[in-house]
Amino acid sequence: MSNIDVKKEFHQFGKYMQIAAILTLTTMAAGMTGIIASIFIFIALGCIKRANYHVNNSSLDEFRSKYIRGFISRICGTAILITGVVNLVFFFLTLFSFIPTSFPVYITLYMSIILIGSGLAFIFLGVAAEMGAWKNLKIFFENNSKMFPTHISKEVIEGCDKLKTGTLLSALGFLIVPGIIGFIFQVQGYFKLATLKKLSKSDAPKTSELQVKLPEPLPVNNLEGRVKFCPNCGAELSGLGRFCAQCGSEIN
Length: 252
Known about the structure:
By secondary structure, this protein is an all-alpha fold. The protein folds into two domains: 201 residues; 31 residues, no CATH class. It is built from six helices and no strands. α2 runs antiparallel to α3. The radius of gyration is 36 Å and the shape is elongated. About 7% of the residues have low confidence.
């Protein structure tokens, strides 16, 4: 993959993050847009994966893996939490004899507590993983800021900080105010990452040119002018001495 291809992948990443930002803005009106926004974020992660074939950077690889791990953990945690809440509602309905059952009601309560606790644990593990993902992306742009225009690197780094904070505050959404602030931070972060779509061909990440130093040629003794045979007796000379080994004549 050439440097132009790497630029193209980061450019596409910025485009998909902009779409995710716009869709996230409409989450308040319709919950399904949050799911669609997540789809575009995963498409954007594919761009990072292809770019990393060339860049081969551990921070980019960690960014992808942690984000995916965090997303899966949060989805599983939410499902478990909802199941626990439903069980808890069933317990109270049974307790007040709205629903007759022969099943021990307090087992339902214990199961509800376990499910709710497990769900919350999965959710917060996912939040920690996603925060780590944005931190890794920030590290990549901090360590490789020269690969991109200064204003773009700065915007992306700020975006990563906002997304990291927004992820934490969104997890506290049950407190309402932190949830709203976290939502705003996430949208701002997505839009800042979207500045990568401004990359042009002239902004392609540059790699240093390879400078190959060829070895200097070894001096070659000029043997053409040397005498190969003794001018006196005609014996073949070894070239190691000044006198002929056969007749003892001096060799000039």
